[in-house]
Amino acid sequence: GYAWVGVSAQKAGVDDLSQRDPGRYGGLRHPGDDYAYDIFARAGRIVSDPASPVLGGLHPEVVLASGASQSANGLLTYINAVHPLVGVYDGFQLQSHVGGAMALRQGASMPASPIVRTDIDVPVLDVQSETDIVVFRTHRNRQEDHPNFRLWELAGSSHAGEYGRSLTWPPKPTAPGDPCTVRINSAPMFALGKAATAALARWATTGVAPPSAPRVELADPAAGDPVERDQYGNALGGIRYPHVEVPIALVDGLPNMAPPDNPSQGLFCLLAGRTLPLSDAQLAELYPTSASYVARFGAAANRAVDAGFLLPEDADVLKAAAAASQPVDP
């Protein structure tokens, strides 16, 4: 029931397209990022227009806007400064916005820790990873849920990770040293993003708001790692998927390190989080058999589905991956 439209509203993206595929995009000229917000609004109007050919004759019931990482920072500015003037979109999904907002125009100053305006008239769902809290300090601009706003934080997740990097499905585990010093984060952040999109669509079409979510618990908010952790190092609080409820590894959003022979991976590894397997003794203490692990994993996945934070089809994907693993010797 969804149609997806990608919008390259910023100059850097358009310039990159024209260089990568000059045959198709070489004629594009972007006037500069002062125009980016109007470009994004016009794109929404085109998609909404029943006479537009963009969707091949489909007529959307609602038009939702989503942005991730740096694009989410631009979308936050759009929500606060542009949407009240133009009203094009019926809802917004912020995915891992990195604690700030883009300037409305070049040279303009912005608040240090912006939040979504509390008088917003359409639903906004803000999805954050543990890395966003640790590296980007997004706990500094947390805000309370209100009638048109929800904040979802996934414990043990990263800004980037195996599910976002892999070209295969399910993703293959990364090896220490490739691309980062230790295995990168294996939490299924993709699944929370999908659940958020489904919840936002339902919210925008029916008015039924998604559930409020517990926040990731904090120890010392000023510390380099502000997150409260359990005996294995996994985060407490937040939305709980089986990877932290039924752990076989420490899975966190702390910075990883690029291997010495490949320093170009530094930025990616900073955002990729970590997966550090539990010891055989810890696994034996937690799970008498692999079957007991799989059963507990499935129950945790079902709880996340019942709470409204995991789609049933993605729970099936995660359960199948758990059943295929043999974390405990028979």
Question: Any overview of this molecule?
Answer:
This protein has a four-stranded parallel β-sheet with strand order 1-2-3-4, sandwiched between helices. The chain has a two-stranded antiparallel sheet with strand order 5-6. By secondary structure, the protein is an alpha/beta fold. Helix 4 (70-86) links the parallel strand 1 and strand 2 (91-95). The protein has helices at residues 11-20, 22-25, 36-48, 70-86, 130-134, 162-165, 189-206, 242-245, 266-271, 280-286, 290-307, 312-324; strands at 64-68, 91-95, 124-129, 149-154, 249-252, 274-277.
Strands in their spatial order, largest beta sheet: 1-2-3-4
**Envelope shape:** globular
| Category from helices, strands and their pairing | alpha/beta
| SS field, number of helical segments | 12
Mean pLDDT: 93
Poorly predicted tracts of residues: none
End-to-end CA span: 44 Å
Helix residue percentage = 25-40%
Query: What is the oligomeric state here?
Result: single chain
As a percent range, the share of strand residues is 5-15%
Provide the gyration radius in Å: 21 Å
Q: Tally of extended strands?
A: 6
Element string (H = helix, E = strand): HHHEHEEHEHHHEHEHHH
Specify the biggest β-sheet: 4 strands, parallel
